[in-house]
Design a protein that fits this description.
It catalyses: cytidine(32) in tRNA + S-adenosyl-L-methionine = 2'-O-methylcytidine(32) in tRNA + S-adenosyl-L-homocysteine + H(+); uridine(32) in tRNA + S-adenosyl-L-methionine = 2'-O-methyluridine(32) in tRNA + S-adenosyl-L-homocysteine + H(+). It comes from Sulfitobacter profundi. Its main location: cytoplasm. Keywords: Cytoplasm, Methyltransferase, S-adenosyl-L-methionine, Transferase, tRNA processing. By secondary structure, this protein is an alpha/beta fold. Strands 1-4-3-2-7-5-8-6 form an eight-stranded mixed sheet. Strand 2, helix 1 and strand 3 form a beta-alpha-beta unit. Helix 1 packs parallel to helix 2 and helix 1 packs parallel to helix 7. The radius of gyration is 29 Å and the shape is elongated.
């Protein structure tokens, strides 16, 4: 028998996160927070040890309490998976079961493909003490395994949920892998970099830097190449002009 606190079963354009026999309400709440960090809000809780609803889960969930309000409470795993087309079971150890084993990244890519095709996908997470039993994993279509330190392979429930939730977001193409904060400035234009290069070249010429004479051309070429390699902002260019001007003033005072 399956019970749910929501008014209807979600069609889920996202995977359902299924916590199987979780032991501590705090870990359920932490898992909810991890899910919501990455845009997942479809939780199913199967036979929690301390009953349902859980006040300790609500306290730990903090701003993600809505996920617990809407979570499905299921008495058993078959009931939790009754509407699912494809299920992943997470485990950190071998189970002697013939099933495809995916990395979290590959699993969430496949989940995204199946959901885009109209299928319902679930990801199972086992209880804190020992993880999923083989009887649980036998009900899944595939296994997700994480490469961890073999001397300490146990992942906290919320950590495991966080890892899979992050990979789900990556599968959606919503992770920005690199960004440069411009801090109120813009990248320098070619003309600005050229003006800076000429400024330094002229002052270095006056200072007698280009010596001996037969190396002058190659030294100037290397300097120009250096300026072009540097990702300079307009603020950088202005500062470097200012540095050179101050050095010249200091020299003239001396």
């Amino acid at each position: 028998m399956t019970q749910t606190t929501s008014s209807s079963v979600q069609p889920a354009p996202i995977p359902a996160i299924v916590l199987v026999r979780p032991q501590m309400g705090e870990n359920i709440g932490a898992a909810a927070r991890a899910m919501w960090n990455f845009g997942l809000d479809h939780m199913r809780v199967v036979a929690p040890r301390d009953g349902w609803p859980s006040q300790s889960a609500v306290a730990m969930a903090s701003g993600a309490g809505r996920l617990l309000d809407e979570a499905q409470h299921c008495d058993d795993l078959p009931g939790a998976l009754s509407d699912c087309d494809f299920t992943f079971a997470t485990t950190a150890r071998g189970r002697d079961l013939t099933k495809p084993v995916y990395s979290p990244e590959a699993a969430m890519r496949l989940a995204a493909e199946k959901i885009a095709a109209g299928q319902r996908v679930a990801v199972l997470f086992g209880p804190e003490r020992a993880g999923l039993e083989n009887e649980d994993i036998a009900q899944a279509n595939a296994i997700v395994s994480v490469q961890v330190n073999p001397k300490f392979a146990s992942l906290n429930l919320a950590q495991c949920v966080l890892l899979m939730s992050y990979e789900w977001m990556r599968a959606q193409g919503e992770v920005t892998h690199e960004v440069t904060e411009m801090a109120g400035t813009d990248w320098a234009k070619g003309a600005e970099v050229d003006h800076l290069a000429r400024h330094y070249e002229e002052r270095l010429e006056e200072a007698g830097f280009f010596y001996p004479e037969h190396k002058t051309a190659s030294m100037k070429l290397n300097l120009r190449n250096m300026w072009s390699r540097m990702p300079l902002t307009r603020a950088d260019v202005q500062m470097l002009h200012g540095v050179l001007r101050q050095m010249v003033r200091w020299k003239e005072k001396g």
